[in-house]
Amino acid sequence: MQQVAGQAEVLEGTRVWRPFAGQTALSTALRTGTGRVVLTGKGGRVIVGSASRLRVYSEETDFQDGQFFMEGAVGAFALGSHVVLETGGRARVDVAASGSRVAVLVGSLRLSSGSKTATLSAGQQINLKTGQVSAFKETDPWYDAQFAGTGAATVEAVRGPVSVRAGSQPAQDAKVGLSLDENAVLSTGSAAWAEVGFTGGGYLRLTEQSELRVLAIEKTSRGREVLLQLTKGSAWNVVQKGQGGYKLSTPVVSTAVRGTKFRVDAAGLVKVMEGQVDVPSSDDAAVSAGEQKPLGQAPQTLQLDDLDRFNIAQDSARARPMTLTVSGAAGWVSQMQLAAKTLPDTVVSAALVGPQDQALPLTTEGQTATGEYRLAAAPNLPEGRYGLKVEATRYGKTLAWQGQFTLDRTPPKVTFLKAEERGQLLFITGQASDASKRLTVTVTTQGGQRVTHTSGEIRVLMPKPKAGQVQIQVQDEAGNQTNVTLP
Q1: What average pLDDT does this structure show over 113-134?
Q2: In this structure, are residues 356 and 372 in contact, taking their beta carbons and an 8 Å threshold?
Q3: What is the CA 4 to chain-centroid distance, rounded?
Q4: Options 3.40.50.2000, 2.60.120.1440, 3.40.50.150, 1.25.40.10; which CATH number does 148-316 get?
Q5: For position 438, what pLDDT does the model report?
Q6: Distance set, CA 281 to CA 49, 66, 255, 341, 377 (Å)
Q7: What H or E segment, with its residue span, contains residue 368?
Q8: 63, 69 in Cβ contact below 8 A?
Q9: For residues 32 and 20, what is the distance between their CA atoms, to the nearest angstrom?
């Protein structure tokens, strides 16, 4: 083992796996997480890809699961076959439950399985289970991209019962923003779905009654490499061009793409809406836009069903521009209120902005489906001025709103209030004070009503009533009132 990038473990004894540390001779077994390992021998080298596993057998590597690249004069085993690559050769080996192969890029190799021997040259591949030889054209050169670190798979939307399980930990509800670690399993229940976004762009929609395992997400010098496994149900995939490799396997079929829109079912059905999907498990059959390929059959004309139409409609909904409207928390208020309106499948959060931001509780039950949120409970805050931040997150994109409000529960102070008769007129005077500085004065008598505004001095002239009392109301901008009755 000469070079390790990312996560790798070696087997100590028969049961204990230890993280790799430093250059060492490999004598037992090796497995990778998100990362790569370079093994060197006397005549060449082997690059071990992410989510792969091998052992040492007869002093050579025995590829057991995952993706491998051989260069130079190298000997190895794969599913019981002995592979010998000639000097100067380059070949890849893919081992998976859905299908395994050896493909030659440069030079030639000899493959022995029992009493049978086959020689392959550049541009040929052999199915390790059937022994069938076919033409090969490389479309997924993952080994030529330099590993640059671990990427991310993030839950971007959920609807209905969706859970995630990591290792031996109990399952938990999948929330928007949750990062799916290596080997995390995402599951959807009845009438549920979830969307997962990836480093570099693109997304996968896991439809109802489905299960997806995240094998590895790499950052590379060419973008990223995504390795996923669909163990149950159906997955709708939108892969952006120019972002790197994307592999999705099932128990019976494997796919490899570099920019397309397609659907894969765990039972082996592949449907392509845009671009082209290679199916290495079917001797690199190519399924083009407008085609579908059932397991074990040749590509045929695409036939849309209800699940396809649901996904197409959901893609259109996802593409809508984000919106965010916030009301109720602006200017002067006596009690904090907040309402937010956005698009469905958006998660909204709110916080008071200050030396220490304080998150505000918002209603969540069913709100992502309607896009309507409100303050669940008003916080107990002292009077004063506050900053407010509201963020809406939808499919990995965020839209922010910021504002300010002043919390004021104190009614205006009114002094020196009196009413004087001046012929047929009534003259009301007095003084009012309040933090808001803009006050509304309403004087009501049996003869009518007069409304005026002031910042302090009260002066109201109106017709003198024939009888009755004079009602005076002073209200500040927050709605706090002081009421006075004069004889």
Answers
A1: 93
A2: no
A3: 29
A4: 2.60.120.1440
A5: 93
A6: 18, 13, 8, 47, 55
A7: helix 367-370
A8: no
A9: 10
